[in-house]
Design brief:
By secondary structure, the chain is of the alpha+beta class. It has one domain. Helices cover about 20% and strands about 30% of the residues. Strands 1-2-3 form a 3-stranded antiparallel β-sheet, covered by helices on one side. Strand 2 and strand 3 form a beta hairpin. The chain is globular, with a radius of gyration of 14 Å. The two termini are about 20 Å apart.
């Protein structure tokens, strides 16, 4: 699905077609559109202008880092944690994405 983002409303049917992004440093290039409630969960919506794609990232409750700092887990209360290789840059980037979505962009309604 190709999306050309204009000043239009993101609808439920558009969110059904979105996918979860790869969690690597490339997500720093995506535009953060804010967060919304979709299927009773909170998601951050990201826009990749280069490829004209929307992504939805499940908002996590916390990040757990193991003692050796080789792995980190994105934890959501009702889900199995999503494990990633730990890097300080990716950890900080994920925290920044959440901060921007919550405190700067805010919630939008579908």
């Amino acid at each position: 699905m190709e999306v050309i983002l204009k000043k239009s409303k993101i609808t439920n049917s558009i969110l059904k077609q979105t996918i979860s992004p790869r969690l690597d440093m490339n997500i720093s290039n995506y535009q953060n559109l804010g967060w919304c409630v979709y299927n009773k969960e909170r998601y951050i919506i990201l826009y990749d202008a280069e490829n004209s794609l929307l992504y939805r990232l499940l908002m996590f409750d916390r990040i757990d880092i193991n003692e050796e700092k080789t792995r980190m887990a994105l934890c959501k209360s009702r889900y199995t944690p999503r494990y990633l290789d730990y890097t300080k840059e990716l950890h900080d980037l994920l925290l920044d994405i959440h901060d921007i979505a919550i405190n700067t962009k805010g919630q939008f309604y579908i």
